[in-house]
Design brief:
Number of helices: 13
Strand content: 25-35%
CATH class of the largest domain: Alpha Beta
CATH architecture of the largest domain: 3-Layer(aba) Sandwich
Helix content: 25-40%
Oligomer: single chain
Radius of gyration: 24 Å
Strand order of the largest sheet: 1-7-6-4-3-2
CATH topology of the largest domain: PvuII Endonuclease, Chain A
Number of domains: 2
Shape: globular
Structural class: alpha+beta
Length: about 400
Amino acid sequence: MFPFNELERAVSNLLWLNISSADKKKAWEQAQSYSNTLARYNAYLNHLSLYIFLNWLTEWLTSESVPKPEIFPSADGLPSIWEVVNGAAMTLGERRIVLIPSETIDLEELCVPQEWVDIPSFAGDYYLAVQVNLEADEDECFLRVLGFTTHRLLKNFGRYNANERTYVLAAENLTANLSVMLMILGLPVQEEIPELPTLSEAEAQKLLQLLGDSSLYFPRLRVDVPFEQWAALLDNDEWRTQLYHRRIGGLAVAKNTASANNLSNWFQNIFDTGWQSLNAVLNTESLNLAFAFRQRELAVGGVSVNGVKLIDLGMQLGNHSVALLVGLTQEDEHQVSIRVQLHPSNGQTYLPPNIKLALLSSSGATLQELKSRIQDNLIQLKRFTCPKGKTFKIQVTIDNFSITEDFVV
């Protein structure tokens, strides 16, 4: 039950959505890999706003002839943004919706960080003011969408706050009924945005060293770093990811990067502990011939480098092991294509039934999952592509046994 009466709900044009205790628990768990308390709480509010609104919008649009909303830039890309900027975005076809959450009880204005307005690749078409109320009883918390504005209205009628680097628009100038947004979805509502300056690699690394210090709670407000330089750094996916990893430092680098298998090193034939190159494994008799033959075919197919790790499945399966294969193809200087397979080993023809192979995001969310059937001699995830600096996990599970391998590209 919401903390307002049914009459108010019926006559209000505002959107009210419940926040359950399960929603709060999941959001808080996902908000732990940030550099400081403020960043964690920012991620917490944005996670709640984004996923609750996204679920509602997806259901609301089921009968409409509009595309399904998608997270921008991706679920895995959110931490690098929420570490330094408030706001969450999604795309709806060619349009972008930006949510700006706030816990202010009497929200009188929409304050949009400049990044969501003046960075061309970030800029939204529509901006929603979201009030998040977490002060109610356990299952009476809610978020309320006060209304929306457009990029053009925000640029032309919003007040620019140079100290906070935000565009501010009074709540009375917002359109409360979201149906209006859907009606004008096809109209151009974005003001022209100047291109950002070009940063050299040396300039970017200097900024990363300066702004990667986690004791600096608001790197976006450094007065000695012009917004244009900050924006150019943030606009680059690779540099933004590097900034995030520098800032989380010992908290998550040890967990996500330092202890992760570094796939970039594999191209120099440098493998992490427990891993071997495919050629080294094929020169032994530890794997059956069928496995070797399949991998020779895979290598001929154009995979640049392959790493193999034998995984002992534990006493409950008679000390059987399986072979985890990760194959890499260098697509270009920024992207690596990755294929993951699981094979029987040590003379076995088939995988154990019901063994699972899963691709997980850096936060632990399941992106792909396969389960072996009776007489499966391999299972393979769909090929996927990662940019440099990206982290992900591969998990092998059977019964009560589970092992997870962390990777960084």
